[in-house]
Design goal:
The complex is a heterodimer of chains A (115) and B (109).
Chain A (H helix, E strand, L loop, with lengths): L3 E3 L3 E4 L5 E7 L5 E7 L6 E6 L6 E2 L6 E7 L2 E6 L8 E8 L10 E2 L3 E5 L1
Parallel strand pairs in A: 2-11
Antiparallel strand pairs in A: 1-3, 3-8, 4-5, 4-9, 5-6, 7-8, 9-10, 9-11
Chain B lengths: L2 E3 L3 E5 L4 E8 L6 E6 L6 E6 L3 E5 L2 E6 L4 E6 L8 E8 L5 E3 L3 E6 L1
Parallel strand pairs in B: 2-11
Antiparallel strand pairs in B: 1-3, 3-8, 4-5, 4-9, 6-7, 7-8, 9-10, 9-11
Classes of the chains: A mainly beta (115), B mainly beta (109).
Chain lengths: 115, 109
């Protein structure tokens, strides 16, 4: 079974703090994704990565950055946390399948509250 | 723009059948996914359709009509554990997943 883990289930930070969210997958997947999920909205893609040291902006990258130094690990960084970044953050991974099923496997999520 | 529409909330009775609809307008189409998400948990994969027609998997079935930009998820013999949100997502021409906001399904005894 694919396992995607995230460093924290719940996190509380203060405005202006630098926040690191870690995600690790154990299935040697090439693709990794960071989403945020807010009530009434669909999953919104922040950043994704197709390979080590490679990153692409998603739909809402502002205020975030990412790092992928190793294939299994994809980190999301909030450079200076703001209250509008309070959200559920979901990490996902998928194999490189040349556009066939591209099923994504999700981690348990991190509920971040910025005070 | 790209758009996925699904009802916000639906209510059904234990043991009954429910159909959750999803309509989409996307730049290209490379398949449609349904995911289930229980409250406070991660989404989990339910089905993938890329050809027109019905795919059956136990109590769950998923239907696709590409010409109509339409899909539905059919849940039979509803159980209380089926109470969850159901997310529709379309893989567009760039192989990016476009997500709907999800349908919250409430099952009543």
């Amino acid at each position: 079974d694919v396992k995607v883990t995230q460093s924290s289930r719940y996190l509380v930070k203060r405005t202006g703090e630098k926040v690191f969210l870690e995600c690790v997958q154990d299935m040697d997947h090439e693709n990794m994704f960071w989403y945020r999920q807010d009530p009434g909205l669909g999953l919104r893609l922040i950043y994704f990565s197709y390979d080590v040291k490679m990153k692409e902006k998603g739909d809402i990258p502002e205020g975030y950055s990412v790092s992928r130094e190793k294939k299994e690990r994809f980190s999301l960084i909030l450079e200076s946390a703001s209250t509008n970044q309070t959200s559920m953050y979901l990490c996902a991974s998928s194999p490189w399948t040349s556009g066939s099923t591209d099923t994504q496997y999700f981690g348990p999520g991190t509920r971040l509250t910025v005070l | 723009g790209q758009n996925i529409d699904q009802p916000t909330e639906m209510t059904a009775t234990e043991g009954a059948i429910v159909q959750i609809n999803c309509t989409y307008q996307t730049s290209g189409f490379n398949g449609l996914f349904w995911y289930q998400q229980h409250a406070g948990e991660a989404p989990t994969f339910l089905s993938y359709n890329v050809l027109d027609g019905l795919e059956e998997k136990g109590r769950f079935s998923s239907f696709l009509s590409r010409s109509k930009g339409y899909s539905y998820l059919l849940l039979k013999e509803l159980q209380m554990k089926d109470s969850a949100s159901y997310l529709c997502a379309v893989l567009d021409s760039n192989y990016q997943l476009i997500w709907g906001a999800g349908t919250k399904l409430i099952i009543k005894p």
